[in-house]
Amino acid sequence: MKVLLAGLCTVDQVQRVAEIPAPGEKVRSLSMDVAAGGPATNAAVTVAALGAGATLLTVAGAHPLAALARADLEAHGVDLVDLDPDRPDPPAISAITVRDSDGERTVVSRNAHASSHFVTSLRSLPARLPQPGDELPGCVLLDGHHPEVAMYTARWARERGIPVVLDAGSWKPVFPELLPLVDIAACSSLYRGDDPREHGVPVVITTAGPEPVRWSTADGSGAVPVPVTQARDTLGAGDVWHGAFAYAVARGEGDVPGWIAFANEVAAERVRHEGPRSWTAAVAKMGEGQS
């Protein structure tokens, strides 16, 4: 079973602190980690941890900092397809602070931006996707970053009848074009933009942290409760949720409420663990239970 993911890859510098500093204040961190980050990237790590094949279409580039992201993804079983391997610019860097008492975090990041190499490199995208005779993914997950990649991949999946899941954490300019190609839009409570239903998306989901996850289809609607847990680190919890949801869709079993319930359980497991990757071993056991 495979999932194809397309979107942002950053380098995350994560500092854990007793208290998030006020403006002008300096504090000493309790720990520091460096890992690959970004919505599609963390989702890909989740898919791989659950035991499925995870292929990530993104832009990393040739800058030395990109090697940090590459090494992390390789160590966690993600197949990285770099669509702009010669880009000299550094990758997007996220500066993250996590509060030790409750796992709440702050994030400062520059999202994906195109380089002079990128338009040319997109010409290689068709050849980097599964070819005739190759195993097709059971699901495609997009985060809306690198819009040209998102659009091409969504059309490719639609032509092959592969379900497309959109991580709509926040509104992006490509969404009016992209939403008509999406089968499931999973929006955060912070999403502000067009209602995906207005663009013909058949399944719309809204996550809201520890609150129940709401869903609606043409046949009905409902809400799935989130497990009560003590949060130690909320960084990437939404990304992990989307990765687990895409994994559940790719398995081809169950229904929307069941997929949500599984994603809720996996995201709850993630927030119980400190650090950007410490949760993967526990999630791997959850994947073994699905096989």
From TrEMBL:
- Give TM regions: none
What InterPro entries does the record tag this protein with?
Carboh/pur_kinase_PfkB_CS (IPR002173), Ketohexokinase-related (IPR052562), PfkB_dom (IPR011611), Ribo/fructo_kinase (IPR002139), Ribokinase-like (IPR029056)
PANTHER family, A to Z:
KETOHEXOKINASE, PHOSPHOTRANSFERASE SYSTEM TRANSPORT PROTEIN
Q: Fetch the SUPFAM superfamilies from UniProt.
A: Ribokinase-like
Carbohydrate kinase PfkB domain residues are 3-187, 197-278
Could you tell me which Pfam families the record lists for this protein? PfkB
Instruction: Look up the domain of life of the source.
Output: Bacteria
Q: Name the source organism.
A: Amycolatopsis alba DSM 44262
The similarity annotation says: Belongs to the carbohydrate kinase PfkB family.
Q: Which UniProt keywords apply?
A: Kinase, Transferase
List the Gene Ontology MF annotations in alphabetical order.
Answer: kinase activity
Q: What is this protein called?
A: Ribokinase
